[in-house]
Amino acid sequence: MSNQKIKVAVAGVGFIGPVHIESIRRAGNLDVVALFHPFESEAAEKAAAMGIPKYYVDYDKMIKEEALDCVHICTPNNLHYPMAKTALLAGKHVICEKPLATTVKEAEELLALAREKKLVHAVSFNLRYYPLVRQMKKMRENGELGNVYSIMGSYLQDWLFYATDYNWRLEPDKSGDSKAIADIGSHLIDLIEYISGLSITEVMADFSTVHPTRKKPLKAVETYSGKMLSPEDYADVPIKTEDYASVLLRFSNGSKGVVTVSQVAAGRKNRLGLEIHGSNVTMSWNSETPNDLWIGKRNEANQVLMRDPSLVDKDVRSIIAYPGGHNEGFGDTSKQLFKEIYAAVREGKQPATPTYPTFEEGLRELRLCDAIVESHRKQGWVRIS
Ligand code: SOE
């Protein structure tokens, strides 16, 4: 493909769709030509607000009518599989939000189809694109970390803190069998394997549903809406999925780890924290202060590495746009991810060794998520197949 603008559509414009649209526009020579949203008046409103020339309330029609190169899938989880499949069958490259699907079988089918069609396939594990996350990976690869002794991670949020907080993620028919693990645990577990280079071999999980009954608004409410509703606006509904989960991990090198995820941790807005203890140093980082990396030492003063192109590993520089002191954050992660994916889209095919997360990693996360859910159900260790 020459230097002409790549034509993109975004399906789903709730919380994360607009993040994609903004990041696509910041990533380069790309044109968002259409969006899909199931409700006419909101679709029109959102298209006008974001300056997108066309909107569709029928996804299949959009795929048929528009001369698209690539589709971003940002809808509720249960729609990822049918929408990705339709796009691949129509010869479009696909960037899908996590989780890739709601079952392992669906994810396997999508991976096989994308390979058969020789199309670019990616899953939006955007948190890999915080520069200091990549720096941690580099420090493990170049030996600065040493052997991994143990890993401790958490992903905490509070947007589902009250029993009156509600979202489609609480409904298994839209979200799948898991809520907190599928929604945010997937990012954390992906980062752990990505940074450490280790595979999780066994898991042991314990979940709790802090609000076994929630008040479901009679009208749709978007992720992070923070809207205060009154009693006549809800119906009581039973909740089957987890608000909180802790999981013990065993890794391929014999080391151990533990992760906790919660969406009911007051004051934690969106905090992924990760600490990796190595035989040389400890590395500790969290997404609420993403431009600092704490490096812990036994016999010297601890250090804080600031995200600055001159201070990080040379391979990390490509995902830093501004010098230290000019903070970069959440939106920048997707921009950097899309730059790498669209370099492949411009070539028209998936590279032999993609630098970005693909449907393969999407499938891996579903396998891990399944094992975690099974472990909680049987209250015992589960080996990853
Ligand atoms: C909601 O918990 C959510 O939007 C997740 O779905 C995203 O993956 C995470 O990046 C932010 O929070």
UniProtKB/TrEMBL annotation:
GO terms for molecular function: nucleotide binding; oxidoreductase activity. InterPro entries: Gfo/Idh/MocA-like_OxRdtase_N (IPR000683), Gfo/Idh/MocA_oxidrdct_glycsds (IPR050463), GFO_IDH_MocA-like_dom (IPR055170), NAD(P)-bd_dom_sf (IPR036291). Keywords: Oxidoreductase. Residues 6-123 form the Gfo/Idh/MocA-like oxidoreductase N-terminal domain. SUPFAM superfamilies: Glyceraldehyde-3-phosphate dehydrogenase-like, C-terminal domain (SSF55347), NAD(P)-binding Rossmann-fold domains (SSF51735). Pfam families: GFO_IDH_MocA, GFO_IDH_MocA_C3. Residues 133-282 form the GFO/IDH/MocA-like oxidoreductase domain. This is Gfo/Idh/MocA family oxidoreductase. It comes from Pseudochryseolinea flava.
